[in-house]
Amino acid sequence: MDAALRSLLDWYAEMGVDVPNVPPAKPVRAKIRPLAKTASRSQPASPQAAKSNTHTAQLKAPDLSKVRTLDELREAMQAYDAGALSDTARQPVFARGNPDADLMVIGEAPGREEDIQGKPFIGPAGQLLDRMLGAIALGEDDFYATNVINWRLPKNRNPTAEDLALCRPFLEKHIELAQPKVLLLVGGISMTALTGVTGIMKNHGEWQDVTIADKTYPTLPLYHPAFLLRRPELKKDAWRDLLNLREKLLSL
Ligand code: URA
Fold this sequence. Notes:
Blueprint: H1 3-15, H2 70-79, H3 84-88, E1 96-97, E2 103-107, H4 112-117, H5 124-134, E3 143-147, H6 161-178, E4 182-186, H7 188-195, H8 200-203, E5 208-212, E6 215-222, H9 225-230, H10 235-251
Parallel strand pairs: 2-3, 2-4, 4-6
Antiparallel strand pairs: 1-3, 5-6
The chain binds uracil.
């Protein structure tokens, strides 16, 4: 059986959907570009103060102005003191997948597994996300994944505006350096952080333009897989959104 069809059927089974005669998806391949070489280490944080709150008070915002490559950005993140977030998390969680892929997936925050292994979307929600993307013939080589929050939050609490502001320079630089063609915003927190739009129930599957560092990206909000596990009746909407994403990628 074709791998895409297998993945699609696995996803349906996972979500409890019973849809017969679904044709296998045509593969969508990433366009491979070489990763830029590391030129030098990133600069230390600037004296510019981060927005003050219980987590970020006394913290300095990262100065990423000299960061030119993804490797440098990863190093800058590892070197950065994110205050309470660095104190409770094991490590920052940077990215996984293919940095040269057309599609950049942006989730919410690392969970337990991600915190342990230092890679986004590898716990249960991430495994479901892989199956969802696999259902439209996207393998790990066809997307690049990160989060709006780079450190696991204590007890997996929701991020505050201050947590989001703290991680924002990393997110913007990450998008600027990866230069994807399309952003997939996984979950309401990611959607609101990038677009300013609130309400994933009414805005999932609605393309929005997001401009980062003078470049505008078509951006699609998708239900978070963890949310879909709790609300399986929304699975059909998620599938429509995935097909919508696939059409966009094929049209590039
Ligand atoms: N793991 C991640 O890395 N991000 C999410 O949004 C959920 C789980």
